[in-house]
């Protein structure tokens, strides 16, 4: 029976909270999993990820699902800052021991995966991303004529899936960036993050989806040039992040289990 502890405040200034899912057996050696929800930085919630929290806890992980600031009221880099603040809080909290940094792993869905990359580069947490967008500045340059839209089918009358995806990609990018400013967009790019402490990383993406596979391949090449390893799993189909998540939880957890074994 998974025990869920709701609405634990981790940032008193912003009143940001996390839910915690406890596995049946907990000890000082219990592994900790942070799950970062997606939603384009303008929607999504920890409550919507409840099923994932239960599933991870049933797999033996004490699971934290934090909320974070959402656009347009809070723009870049607020959500990224919140993620960093959460980790600092977690490492000092009653839920971790002094040496627990080695026991923490991450999974991030969509833009939650983008934020997980930023955290992984700083804290060495073994990480799995599901359809993490990694390119914003380059993408925007190539799609200047695209009109941003949350509901492109209804708002713009688009029917072609790629055109709908492009309109949404531009919408959530600009909503979080706050402006079409190349300097801001460049800072949002995953290639702009600090990967000094990056260790174990697995990225999962569909062959043809919202997150362009070519941008992911370019990011893998970027990491390779820094002699940083990454496992990339490309699955057939069109699903983005949570569309395929339930079918790839086992692969994700297997990867994280193996990294934990290698660290012992």
Concise synopsis of the structure shown:
With 264 residues, the protein is an alpha/beta fold.
Walkthrough of the structure:
With 264 residues, the protein is of the alpha/beta class. The protein has 9 helices and 8 strands. It has helices at 50-58, 78-92, 111-123, 137-142, 152-155, 161-177, 182-188, 213-225, 249-263, and strands at 3-11, 16-22, 31-36, 61-66, 104-109, 127-130, 201-206, 231-235. Strands 1-2-4-3-5-6-7-8 form an 8-stranded mixed beta sheet, sandwiched between helices. Strand 7, helix 8 and strand 8 form a beta-alpha-beta unit. Helix 2 crosses helix 3. The chain starts with a strand and ends with a helix. The model has no long low-confidence stretch (mean pLDDT 96).
Give the topology.
Elements: E1 3-11, E2 16-22, E3 31-36, H1 50-58, E4 61-66, H2 78-92, E5 104-109, H3 111-123, E6 127-130, H4 137-142, H5 152-155, H6 161-177, H7 182-188, E7 201-206, H8 213-225, E8 231-235, H9 249-263
Parallel strand pairs: 3-4, 3-5, 5-6, 6-7, 7-8
Antiparallel strand pairs: 1-2, 2-4
Helix pairs in contact: 2-3
């Amino acid at each position: 029976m998974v025990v869920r502890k709701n609405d634990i405040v981790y940032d008193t200034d912003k009143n940001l909270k996390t839910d915690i899912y406890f596995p049946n057996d907990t000890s000082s050696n219990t592994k900790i999993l942070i799950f970062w929800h997606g939603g384009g930085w303008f929607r999504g919630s920890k409550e919507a990820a409840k099923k994932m929290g239960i599933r991870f806890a049933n797999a033996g992980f004490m699971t934290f699902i934090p909320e974070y600031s959402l656009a347009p009221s809070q723009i870049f880099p607020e959500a990224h800052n919140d993620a960093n603040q959460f980790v600092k809080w977690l490492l000092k909290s009653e839920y971790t021991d002094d040496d627990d940094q080695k026991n923490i792993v991450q999974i991030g869905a969509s833009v939650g995966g983008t934020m997980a990359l930023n955290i992984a580069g700083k804290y060495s947490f073994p990480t799995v991303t599901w359809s993490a967008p990694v390119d914003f500045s380059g993408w925007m340059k190539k799609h200047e004529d695209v009109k941003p839209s949350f509901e492109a089918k209804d708002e713009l009358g688009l029917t072609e899936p790629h055109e709908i995806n492009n309109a949404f990609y531009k919408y959530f990018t600009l909503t979080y960036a706050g402006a079409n400013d190349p300097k801001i967009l460049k800072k949002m790019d995953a290639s702009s993050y600090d990967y000094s402490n990056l260790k174990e990383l697995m990225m999962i993406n569909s062959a043809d989806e919202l997150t362009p596979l070519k941008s992911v391949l370019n990011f893998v090449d970027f990491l390779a040039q820094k002699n940083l390893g990454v496992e990339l799993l490309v699955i057939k189909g069109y699903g983005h992040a949570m569309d395929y998540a339930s079918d790839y939880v086992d692969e994700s957890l297997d990867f994280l289990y193996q990294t934990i074994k290698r660290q012992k």
